[in-house]
Write the structure tokens for this entry.
Amino acid sequence: MDVMSDTTGLILSGGGARAAYQVGVLAAIARMRREAGAAQGNPFPVISGTSAGAINAAFLACRADHFDQAMEDLVHVWSHFQVEQVYRSDILGMIRSGARWVSLLSLGWLITQKRLRPKSLLNNDPLRDLLQERIDLERLPRLLRDGHLQALAITASSYSTGEHVTFYESCRPVTPWVRNQRLAQHGRLSHPHLLASSAIPFIFPAMRLEGPQGTAYFGDGSMRQTAPISPAIHLGASKILVIGAGRMLEPRQVSTQEPSYPSLAQIAGHALSSIFLDSLAVDVERMQRINQTLQLIPIEKRLDTHLRPIELLLIAPSQRLDEIAARHADALPQTVKSLLRTLGASQTTFHGQGNALLSYLLFEAAYTRELMALGESDAQQQRDEIARFFGWTAKA
């Protein structure tokens, strides 16, 4: 791989509604850049996203020629979110998806016909409409050709082969990489790629895509993602900003209550946290260890190899997002709250991993605005690190 010098990459991880935190961080960085009088244009030539992070990534990439305006629009979208923009929460919609799914759990032995089996817990048709309205992927080739962007990568996981696939568009030829259980495919990106990458397992339906091994059904890219930072490096980034969505910097949760048997909601929350958060934390630690090891190799010997240290800046929540979600549980439509209660979560039993499930599904403005505010605050706390990372100096 030919690593281009001083190319900044942006990694946006998954996490459903938690992705609002990323928007707050990026809004703060955009403001800092203006205050520093830094050069305008797109600060992230390489953008890589997974799950809900893929949607934010595509939004920014498709407006790379007007980054500041794109950020304002992205903030507006997340500041006014409602559940109905992401998944159906009306009674009919819930009956056709969530209620039927719960019935399957209890009466599955009676349901033998495939046409009666729901594909997912929730119907995300509204999200499909939102993506088509807000993200113009037809602009990508021109933005790449005109130099506003170097590459956009979207990652999904194949249910058919079990492989982790990164779909990408780039301005220059990049040989698709092949690693153990990790593949890449160059080609035009589409809204189905975004829907596949953000298809939280069990929650949203899988998408049928043409992958490296042929046609397959793909789901959330965070599943089996062992190296979230890898796509940006393959696509030429030499320094990378990673914005997490929880667990890495947030305080640990200590429970003094007598443990009770976990509900389905708690188990689901624990599983989703493992899928979305653990791999990124492990990959960041791995990258830091590799950088430390490379520093032990004399520069003259390092130049004879393809090994290069990758400058990495991590910004992640300083507070527990599941606890923030619990404070806004009432913002959910009654139909969704009823479904979560059926799964074992309620206003009185939301705690621990029960909150985690809520934190991924709570696409409501009261919650997303607080996450964005936290993102801005955390970025402000790392203001000096951010300025060093981008090479900004304060205006005289």
